[in-house]
């Protein structure tokens, strides 16, 4: 059994994955850790503070995953993983995520792009296109134990941050930040 835990940075993938792997005695595999530890990135995007990879890395990631029968896979990008039995996308209220990412002392562009992605459901959309059956869980106001229980019980949420009236103002604020960096 392979369980994929994906979602925007800061939603709790690492913590939830580690709890699940301990609980079920599954292996834990972090795609980003694998890329960094094996220096599989091709370049560093200093504007976004992220690493870039090319397609050849996807094969290496999946070769590694296919060696593991029972594993919890943590990845921001679901489409890096070829197959999994259960696909979870953790979601977090964008206002809460914004505050949490600010606490990480990340750069403004990186924060704004990630909060915007959460608002628009970019990762969930990627997961849906890649795997069809996915389970989204709103982690906002849920304890780690509740999140884990919902994953096990297949109790999924309908998440649509765009239906929140105040979200348009946040999107405008984020767009302003992002456009400041566009010409840099
Ligand atoms: N259910 C929860 N309730 C409250 N805090 C949580 C919960 N789950 C995780 N956290 C906290 O949220 C923060 C982000 O968690 P974590 O590092 O696991 O996120 P992540 O999705 O793995 O981020 P990244 O993509 O950067 O690796 C951590 O400080 C963690 O302790
Ligand atoms: Mg993590």
From TrEMBL:
<feature type="binding site">
    <location>
        <position position="104"/>
    </location>
    <ligand>
        <name>ATP</name>
    </ligand>
</feature>
<feature type="binding site">
    <location>
        <position position="13"/>
    </location>
    <ligand>
        <name>ATP</name>
    </ligand>
</feature>
<dbReference type="GO" id="GO:0005524">
    <property type="term" value="F:ATP binding"/>
</dbReference>
<dbReference type="GO" id="GO:0042274">
    <property type="term" value="P:ribosomal small subunit biogenesis"/>
</dbReference>
<dbReference type="Pfam" id="PF13238">
    <property type="entry name" value="AAA_18"/>
</dbReference>
<feature type="binding site">
    <location>
        <position position="142"/>
    </location>
    <ligand>
        <name>ATP</name>
    </ligand>
</feature>
<feature type="binding site">
    <location>
        <position position="10"/>
    </location>
    <ligand>
        <name>ATP</name>
    </ligand>
</feature>
<keyword id="KW-0808">Transferase</keyword>
<comment type="subunit">
    <text>Interacts with uS11. Not a structural component of 40S pre-ribosomes, but transiently interacts with them by binding to uS11.</text>
</comment>
<feature type="binding site">
    <location>
        <position position="14"/>
    </location>
    <ligand>
        <name>ATP</name>
    </ligand>
</feature>
<keyword id="KW-0698">rRNA processing</keyword>
<keyword id="KW-0067">ATP-binding</keyword>
<dbReference type="InterPro" id="IPR027417">
    <property type="entry name" value="P-loop_NTPase"/>
</dbReference>
<protein>
    <recommendedName>
        <fullName>Putative adenylate kinase</fullName>
        <ecNumber>2.7.4.3</ecNumber>
    </recommendedName>
</protein>
<comment type="similarity">
    <text>Belongs to the adenylate kinase family. AK6 subfamily.</text>
</comment>
<keyword id="KW-0690">Ribosome biogenesis</keyword>
<keyword id="KW-0418">Kinase</keyword>
<feature type="binding site">
    <location>
        <position position="12"/>
    </location>
    <ligand>
        <name>ATP</name>
    </ligand>
</feature>
<keyword id="KW-0547">Nucleotide-binding</keyword>
<dbReference type="InterPro" id="IPR020618">
    <property type="entry name" value="Adenyl_kinase_AK6"/>
</dbReference>
<dbReference type="GO" id="GO:0006364">
    <property type="term" value="P:rRNA processing"/>
</dbReference>
<dbReference type="GO" id="GO:0016887">
    <property type="term" value="F:ATP hydrolysis activity"/>
</dbReference>
<dbReference type="GO" id="GO:0004017">
    <property type="term" value="F:AMP kinase activity"/>
</dbReference>
<comment type="function">
    <text>Broad-specificity nucleoside monophosphate (NMP) kinase that catalyzes the reversible transfer of the terminal phosphate group between nucleoside triphosphates and monophosphates. Has also ATPase activity. Involved in the late maturation steps of the 30S ribosomal particles, specifically 16S rRNA maturation. While NMP activity is not required for ribosome maturation, ATPase activity is. Associates transiently with small ribosomal subunit protein uS11. ATP hydrolysis breaks the interaction with uS11.</text>
</comment>
<feature type="region of interest" description="LID">
    <location>
        <begin position="103"/>
        <end position="113"/>
    </location>
</feature>
């Amino acid at each position: 059994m392979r369980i994929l835990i994906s979602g925007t940075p800061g939603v709790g993938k690492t913590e939830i994955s580690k709890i699940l792997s301990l609980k079920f005695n599954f292996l834990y595999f972090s795609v980003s850790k694998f890329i960094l530890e094996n220096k599989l990135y091709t370049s560093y995007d200093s504007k976004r503070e992220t690493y870039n990879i090319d397609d050849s890395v996807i094969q290496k990631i999946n070769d590694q995953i296919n060696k593991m029968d029972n594993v919890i896979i943590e990845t921001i990008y679901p489409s890096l993983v070829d197959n999994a039995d259960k696909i979870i996308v953790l979601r977090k209220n964008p206002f809460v995520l914004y505050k949490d990412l600010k606490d990480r002392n990340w750069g403004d562009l990186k924060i704004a792009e990630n909060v915007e992605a959460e608002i628009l459901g970019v990762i969930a959309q990627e997961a849906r296109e890649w795997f069809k059956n996915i389970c989204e869980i709103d982690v906002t106001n849920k304890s780690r134990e509740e999140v884990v229980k919902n994953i096990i019980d297949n109790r999924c949420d309908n998440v649509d941050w765009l239906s929140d009236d105040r979200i348009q103002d946040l999107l405008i604020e984020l767009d302003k930040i992002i456009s400041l960096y566009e010409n840099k």
